[in-house]
Amino acid sequence: MKSYLAAAIQMTSIPDLQKNLVQAEELIDLAVRQGAELVSLPENFSFLGEEKDKVELAQEISEQSEQFLKTMAQRYQITVVGGGFPVPVGDRKVYNTATIVDPHGIELARYQKVHLFDVNLPDGNTYEESGTVKAGTDLPSVYRSEELGSLGLSVCYDVRFPELYRHLSSKGADILFVPAAFTAYTGKDHWQVLLQARAIENTCYVIAPAQTGCHYDLRHSHGHATIVDPWGVILADAGDKSGVAIAKIDPNRIEQVRSQMPSLQHRVFA
Ligand SMILES: O=C(O)CNC(=O)[C@H](CS)NC(=O)CCC(=O)C(=O)O
């Protein structure tokens, strides 16, 4: 594994596939100009709208998202992590799917979001992700890249389930991705502390691209795309506007933290 720059993109996706892909490419371009070799996009980067529209358009969103990720990876010669996008499965349901694509345009890993966000928030917003999304049933696998380290996928609400990240770290992950569209309401109190906890307890980098601002109607996302180092230090935070969080991913830092704090080796129950 080498030392390199990684980017977590922060955007405001809307119910318009083509406009989102234009916005995403502009931000990828910005990240690459700053030297990023690995660029991650948030959950719902290609479409964030009403559930019924998402399901109706799922085939098109899915095809265009996959093509977009391949094109970006090849055009900019980077590895791309595509946060969640809908992939149709069965009748009027989708998998909320995240993928990793290498600079040749080859898909390296694919994960279907396991934990679905069915929550009524005190701010009056209700979420019933399981109404349109079929839950994945498989733990994510770790992709071992010679250059970039061992990469583990997750999506958004998964961040509340530490056992998923424990699985990834016990399979050798160095970098945990948490592409998200965290709600403004939960994000203000939970987002940063959950990301830091996952980094600290697994002594891994956490890269968390995010949605921000108002998508449509009352849908607001928290923003703060973040990169956390294995000690739990916030290396970059994109604030609340669209943009990119960029930080150096350094194998020496992983080694240093794991020798200073060898907690992964002291596990008793896992
Ligand atoms: O808002 C949208 O339409 C887009 N969001 C999503 O698609 C997903 C599923 S509804 N959001 C989350 O998982 C938020 C989790 C979260 O916010 C928490 O765990 O607190």
In short:
The chain has 270 residues and is an alpha/beta fold. It has 6 helices and 16 strands.
Describe the structure.
It is a single chain. This protein is an alpha/beta fold and 270 residues long. It has one domain: Carbon-nitrogen hydrolase (Nitrilase/N-carbamoyl-D-aminoacid amidohydrolase, 4-Layer Sandwich). The chain is 30% helix and 32% strand. The protein contains 6 helices and 16 strands. Strands 1, 2, 3, 4, 5, 12, 13 and 16 form an 8-stranded mixed beta sheet that branches. It has a 6-stranded mixed beta sheet with strand order 8-9-10-11-14-15, with helices on one face. Strands 6-7 form a two-stranded antiparallel ribbon. The model has no long low-confidence stretch (mean pLDDT 97). Bound molecules: N-(4-carboxy-4-oxobutanoyl)-L-cysteinylglycine (KGT). N-(4-carboxy-4-oxobutanoyl)-L-cysteinylglycine (KGT) binds next to helix 5. The site of N-(4-carboxy-4-oxobutanoyl)-L-cysteinylglycine has 15 residues, from helix 5.
CATH architecture label name: 4-Layer Sandwich
* Sheet/helix structural class: alpha/beta
Which range does the strand content fall in?
Answer: 25-35%
Instruction: Please give the share of residues in helix.
Output: 25-40%
User: What's the total count of β strands?
Assistant: 16
Protein traits:
270 residues; alpha/beta; eight-stranded mixed beta sheet; 16 strands; 32% strand; binds N-(4-carboxy-4-oxobutanoyl)-L-cysteinylglycine
